Amino acid sequence: MRYYTPQDEWIEVDGATATVGITDYAQGQLGDIVFVDLPEPGRTVEKGKEAAVVESVKTAADVYAPVSGTVTEVNAALADNPALVNESAEGEGWFFRLRLADPAELEGLMDQAAYQASLAAR
Amino acid sequence: MSILGTPRPTTPATSAGPAAPTFSGNRALMLEEPLVFELGDSSTSGVDLEAVPAHASRLAELERSAPIGLPGLSEGETVRHYTRLSRQNYGIDLGLFPLGSCTMKHNPRLNEKLARLPGFADIHPLQPQDTVQGALELIHRLAHWLTTLTAMPAVAMAPKAGAHGELCGMLAIRAAHEARGDARQVVLVPESAHGTNPATAAFCGYAVESIPADARGRVDLAALAARLGPDVAAVMITNPNTCGLFEPDMRRIADAVHAAGGYVYCDGANFNAIVGRVRPGDLGVDAMHINLHKTFSTPHGGGGPGSGPVVFSAALAPFAPLPFVVEKDGRFHLVEEETADAEDHGRSFGRMAAFHGQMGMFVRALAYMMSHGADGLRQVAEDAVLNANYVLRGLADVMTAPFAASGPCMHEALFDDRFLEGTGVTTLDFAKALVDEGYHPMTMYFPLVVHGAMLVEPTETESKARLDAFIATMRDLAAAAKAGDVARFRAAPRFAPRARLDETRAARQPVLAWTPPRSPQSEAA
Lengths: 122, 525
Prior knowledge:
heterodimer; A: CATH 2.40.50.100; six-stranded antiparallel β-sheet; about 20% helix; globular; B: 3 domains; seven-stranded mixed β-sheet; three-stranded antiparallel β-sheet; 12 strands; disordered N terminus
């Protein structure tokens, strides 16, 4: 199941772990992405707090953790090829994986239809 | 290698340029110029140096055996190199420089004349203070006018520019909290603040939290008040803010922050809009830097150096950095570490710089203040605001100005990119097209609170005729974008010494060091 945040992150949940990235809409707004600063595996991140930084030719933006948890893995391919985020934001351009601290935190997030509706309203 | 470097024929970026390249790469008065390392060779020198006498080296294997590769140029070629480069540059002495939040105003030549007086220009910071009484008096007078204009009792003159001033202010705030044994961890920064503010707070070791802007582009007072608490050390606020708007709730914000035990840092980069009209001390500000290179007309950017004195409230004054000038019985001296305790300044947090600050800028800033007088400085703010509103109203019907409906702006006019929607032209393209028209672009994509921002600050030193020409140019560009002339924008700049750079590749694969071309000798060896 995939969820979305109002800050344009997505989180794909698979049991107790989840994969996090930024949405296709977000990469389009940022423009050409030139650098992604990912958290160290083992770091605990807190829901709504900064977990990564994404830098484009236009600006730098914080990426917030959609839920709390412990980072288990990061997308090493982004170090050499940050353009993956532009090409495949919601696929190969994922940022990091984490072990969920509290699955109940997912309840406040949007599903894809709700997220698309929120974009239309912006 | 030829002393004039390798000819590099110019290829016009589009058919709009001259059709045929020239042999030399020059195009009449548009002169090509290689890097200085690509010019000259080790057999040429602009100075006569005595031959090094025979000596035994004590460096052993550390002694350099390869040439160090400094370019050898005669004096004449050196002058030409930098003069040619300067002709490819754009500055305030060439034309309007509407870079928002930078206050690129004219630098009066009177300032320069006074700064070159030998009594100011040819002195040294380590000279006995008895021999530099005039210079110390000048610093003291400038400090007096800065504290008077801001209604703040103390000022630190040493900080070298805006961000250095922010650091100075935040270190004083930290020292004041620590003196009470209060280890607060959080600094709040509104979205409408300058980008350096959160960087400064983070550099000081604080956790930074953002406060949203309201629909009018101002600080959301309710959101700010809700976040205040015993962990908040300070709020860093920019007033007028980066939307070019005055924060009318400033006094209420300051009162709320003080009630919660925090301090108010104000980014004074936009002081030009209110100098002589509003005193930040009256708004409850505890610390504010003043960019002499913005408001007080000293050179800016590469022509600097900058200078960023910081004014302090009575609460923070005891923690202000050393040194500062004190007058006693008609004589002036610097309070420094040795005498700080005896002169009742033992709680200073330390120093921001080795010496007392940018003397040459102090002379220029005081010259500016004294040549304007109180009424002149008030008119500076009034004319700066008038000019910005003239630009805002001259463009609001063809561009989109997100906050124009909420009333006049201050010293800068903010536009977003809604008027470009569907044209295929972006804010970046628009800015590059302005280069072709002979203007330095406005600040773009900042502030972040509006989409595709373009922030225009004309300053008070532009005439109505200049502003009319600029507005006409912007209107023509807006009309061209809407008419679908995308090529004019995508190819821009077409007439600059270099065409559009590949910013994405430059950022993804930066080349950070120049590599010398292989010389014929090393290839033969």
